[in-house]
Design a protein that fits this description.
Strand 1 and strand 2 form a beta hairpin. The two termini are about 15 Å apart. With about 425 residues, this protein is α+β, with helices and mostly antiparallel strands. About 45% of the residues are buried. It contains ten helices and 25 strands.
Length: about 425
C-alpha cells in the first residue's frame, strides 16, 4: 500500500480528532470522584476512548486512570503507551495553548509534542491499519495514561489489572529507538542560618518546578526589590537555558553580608554554567549515556535557612550512592541533605529483535543508518515492562516541550504517523 497517499487522503480526519483532544485542559488537578488525577486528565481520557470507539476498536478503562483501544484478540499483545496529561501552560503564548493551531505548516498547542500529538498519531495509525484488513499475528493496544507528567502513578494501577505487553514503545522521547534512560535523583539541600541573618532577605518568588530551568525570580533585600531574568528550558536540557537561580545567587552574594552573602556567592560559583556538576565533582560520564546533567530548579528561603533543590540525571553506569557521597564531600559543612525523588536508570537490550525491527522501520522512512540511543529523559518505559521509547522528536530537535508555544511541524507530525503505521504493521502483522 502507498502509505504517503493513504496518510495524505486521511489527514484531515486525523487533525479533527487531534483537535478535540488538544482542546481538553488536561493539567493534573485535585483528586475527584472517579478522577484520581483531576477532572482534566479524566476528560481527555473519556474523549480519546470515545474517538477510539467510533473507529470500531474495543476499548476499556482501568481505575479511571488508564484506557486502551485494541485491535485483534489474544493475551499477548503489542503495546503503545502514551499520555494525555500535560504540564500547565504558563508564560506568554502567541497561540491559544488549548487549541490546535496550524500556522504556516506548524502546529501549536500544549501537548502537540508531549504527548497528545504522537499518541493520537499512533491511534490513527491503528485505524488506518485496521482499514487495510491485514491479518494480525497478535493484537495491538494503544494505551492512554493520565499521570506521566506527575510521576507516572497511573501505570501501576494498569498493571494491577492487566498484563504488560509482549513488547511495546512509548512515543514520548526521540528517535531512533531509545534503549536506556539515565537515573534521576532530586536533592533538597538546606544550609542553616539564624532568623537574624535571614531577616533582611524576602521570600523568593517565581515559577520554580522540577520540569524546567527557572527563568524569572524576584525577592527583596531590605525591602528593595531584586529581579533577575534568565531563559526557560526543560530541566533535561539545562544548557539551552539561563538559570535564574545562579543569576539571583550572584546578585544576593554582593548585597547580603557575611555568611549569607558568602553562601550565595558560593552557590553562584557552583551553578553558573556548571550543567555537568563539574565544581561539585559530579562530572560522571560513560560511553553509552554521556555526561551527568545537573539542574538547580528551586531556591527557597525557609524559617531555618536556605534550601536549594537539584535535579540530577546520571549515566546508567553510575549509582545514587556515588552521587550522594560526592555531594556531601563537596558541599559546605553543616548542610542537611534529603533525597526527594529517585528513579533508577532503565535499560532494554538493544540487540532485541523488536528493537532491530523498529530501527529498520526508522531507517526505511528516514534513510541512512541509525543506532539505538539513550536519553536524559524519563518516560513510561521506566514503569512498564518490555517498553522502549521511540520518537517523536527527530535528531537535533530539543527543548520544545514544557515551554510556551509548544510546536510540531505538520511535516514531522505526518512523518511520525507514517513511522508508527509501519512499526505497528511490522510488529503485529
Amino acid at each position: 500500500m502507498n502509505l504517503t497517499q493513504l496518510i495524505e487522503t486521511n489527514k484531515a480526519e486525523f487533525y479533527q480528532a487531534l483537535a478535540k483532544v488538544m482542546a481538553v485542559k488536561s493539567v493534573k488537578g485535585p483528586k475527584a470522584s472517579q478522577a484520581p488525577f483531576g477532572i482534566g486528565p479524566k476528560e481527555a481520557l473519556l474523549t480519546v476512548l470515545e474517538i477510539a470507539k467510533s473507529y470500531g476498536f474495543e476499548t476499556k478503562m482501568i481505575a479511571d486512570a488508564v484506557g486502551y483501544a485494541q485491535l485483534g484478540q489474544g493475551s499477548e499483545y503489542i503495546g503503545v503507551v502514551g499520555h494525555l496529561d500535560v504540564v500547565a501552560a504558563r508564560g506568554k503564548w502567541t497561540y491559544p495553548p488549548f487549541q490546535l493551531t496550524n500556522k504556516n505548516g506548524t502546529f501549536y498547542g500544549r501537548g502537540i509534542l508531549d504527548n497528545k500529538g504522537p499518541i493520537m498519531a499512533c491511534l490513527f495509525a491503528l485505524k488506518l491499519l485496521k482499514e487495510q484488513h491485514l491479518p494480525l499475528k497478535r493484537p495491538i493496544r494503544i494505551i492512554f495514561g493520565t499521570d506521566e507528567e506527575s510521576g507516572s502513578h497511573d501505570l501501576p494501577l494498569y498493571l494491577k489489572q492487566e498484563a504488560p505487553p509482549l513488547f511495546g514503545f512509548t512515543p514520548d522521547c526521540k528517535y531512533p529507538v531509545v534503549y536506556g534512560e539515565r537515573g534521576i535523583v532530586h536533592y533538597a539541600i538546606t544550609m542553616p542560618f539564624s532568623q537574624t541573618q535571614l531577616q533582611r532577605l524576602g521570600e523568593i518568588i517565581g515559577d520554580q518546578a522540577s520540569d524546567h530551568v527557572p527563568d524569572l525570580l524576584r525577592t527583596t533585600v531590605d525591602e528593595k526589590v531584586i529581579e533577575v531574568a534568565g531563559k526557560r528550558a526543560p530541566s533535561n536540557a539545562p544548557e539551552l537555558g539561563i538559570n535564574a537561580i545562579s543569576l539571583l545567587a550572584n546578585r544576593l552574594g554582593s548585597l547580603l553580608p557575611e555568611q549569607l552573602g558568602e553562601y550565595f556567592s558560593w552557590l553562584a560559583d557552583m551553578f553558573d554554567e556548571q550543567h555537568h556538576g563539574q565544581r561539585l565533582g559530579l562530572d560522571f560520564s560513560d560511553e553509552e549515556s554521556g555526561r551527568l546533567l545537573l539542574t538547580p530548579y528551586r531556591l527557597v528561603k525557609e524559617s531555618n535557612g536556605i534550601t536549594v533543590k537539584l535535579a540530577i540525571r546520571y549515566p546508567i553506569s553510575v549509582n545514587e550512592e556515588q552521587l550522594t557521597t560526592t555531594i556531601k564531600k563537596n558541599w559546605l559543612p553543616n548542610s542537611q541533605l534529603q533525597v526527594t525523588r529517585r528513579l533508577k536508570s532503565s535499560y532494554f537490550p538493544k540487540t532485541d529483535a523488536h528493537v532491530k525491527q523498529l530501527t529498520t522501520v526508522y531507517e526505511q522512512v528516514m534513510g541512512g543508518v541509525a543506532e539505538p540511543v539513550t536519553t536524559t529523559g524519563a518516560t513510561y518505559a521506566r514503569f512498564m515492562p518490555n517498553l522502549v521509547a521511540f520518537g517523536p522528536s527527530f535528531p537535533g530537535q530539543k527543548g520544545i516541550a514544557h515551554k510556551e508555544d509548544e510546536f510540531m511541524t505538520e511535516v514531522d507530525l505526518l512523518k511520525n504517523l507514517e513511522i508508527y503505521l509501519r512499526a505497528l504493521t511490522v510488529l503485529a502483522c
